[in-house]
Design the sequence.
């Protein structure tokens, strides 16, 4: 599956470059040696991607000379000859680990601005405050959208709001406004539709179901036993996918998922945490690093030892008193897919929505051992 994923990523990346005119008709592609180095893949994998491009009529190949673009991209509007203005909407309810995660993705997007001829309008991650009302959130975001309109922003990378009871409605309102103003949208990390449904917007991120399976398998360590799942209220739709991956890993190990092992609550609510631990939770998949860090802090205060894994690999994960095992997001891959998808969306607005995922990496640290069942 990993090889298949790499093959698909290379094909889509090169196809987008050709479609958007990054490689123009008649131009020779970089050498296979250079492409292998860029994509960090073997020669056979790259050859299969090039063969597929050739079969689809995007390139022709001449032995000893190289690969040449045969596809004629649609003429770019004159306005696009100047750098595109692209914006970012990242409203977060609290200053937590998601801010770090998205800042890393945005920085990776910014590094691509010269190669793909765009300017990134970015005022950092917007923290709204945990107690912000629906109207206050909308008002603040309206101000950002108006500023983007004045700056002639053509497309926005949008990370949906989470951790708010009215998040779903607010996200839809934001998207409706962007749509009304003719601003292209690419969603990052999470969809606005509840999984397994999909919205009509492009979505770039990781395969959260596969990630949930991988971290749960690591905790199981080939020894079927109780594993718990912990998330906070009003979490993003990605958490539902990670929960499904967790359940699938239990089924794979011959265990029946148990509702009593799945917990949703506030980590600042001490009775909730105490009940979680008193009910026998010892091996816990946390929905993200921030939740895992909160849990480890409470356990340290209570003198309780648990095995914990998280997601995202934020900047503090390796610096905790007990370094955190976590699933690292591939920032550069996500950024590249986001930019290529945005360029395609602006040039071909009628194309079907795309959902591109990149494989992450499990980073094993001291927060989970290999405890065997009693």
Sequence:
């Amino acid at each position: 599956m990993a090889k298949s994923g790499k093959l698909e990523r290379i094909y889509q990346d090169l196809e987008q470059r050709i479609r958007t005119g990054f490689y123009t008709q008649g131009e020779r592609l970089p050498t296979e040696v250079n492409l292998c180095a860029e994509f960090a893949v073997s020669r056979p994998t790259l050859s299969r991607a090039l063969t597929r491009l050739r079969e689809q009529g995007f390139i022709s190949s001449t032995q000893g000379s190289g690969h040449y673009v045969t596809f004629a991209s649609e003429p770019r509007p004159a306005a696009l000859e100047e750098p595109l203005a692209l914006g970012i909407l990242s409203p977060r309810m609290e200053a937590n680990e998601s801010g770090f995660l998205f800042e890393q993705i945005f920085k990776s997007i910014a590094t691509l601005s010269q190669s793909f001829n765009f300017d990134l309008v970015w005022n950092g991650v917007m923290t709204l405050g945990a107690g912000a009302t629906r109207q206050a959130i909308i008002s603040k975001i309206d101000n950002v959208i108006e500023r983007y309109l004045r700056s002639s922003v053509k497309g926005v990378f949008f990370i949906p709001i989470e951790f708010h009871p009215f998040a779903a409605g607010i996200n839809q309102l934001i998207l409706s406004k962007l749509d009304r103003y003719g601003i292209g949208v690419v969603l990052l990390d999470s969809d606005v539709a509840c999984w397994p449904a999909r919205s009509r917007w492009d979505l770039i991120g990781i395969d959260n179901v596969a990630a949930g399976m991988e971290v749960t398998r690591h905790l199981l360590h080939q020894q079927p036993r109780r594993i718990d799942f912990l998330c906070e209220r009003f979490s993003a739709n990605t958490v539902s996918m990670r929960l499904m991956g967790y359940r699938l890993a239990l089924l794979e190990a011959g265990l029946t998922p148990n509702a009593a092992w799945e917990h949703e609550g506030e980590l600042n609510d001490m009775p909730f945490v105490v009940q979680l631990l008193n009910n026998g939770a010892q091996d816990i998949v946390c929905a993200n690093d921030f939740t895992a860090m909160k849990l480890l802090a409470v356990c340290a205060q209570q003198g309780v030892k648990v095995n914990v894994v998280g997601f995202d690999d934020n900047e503090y994960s390796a610096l905790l008193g007990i370094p955190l095992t976590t699933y690292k997001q591939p920032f550069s891959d996500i950024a590249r897919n986001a930019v290529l998808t945005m360029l395609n969306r602006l040039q071909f607005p009628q194309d079907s929505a795309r959902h591109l995922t990149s494989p992450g990496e499990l980073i094993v640290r001291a927060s989970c051992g290999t405890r065997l069942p009693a």
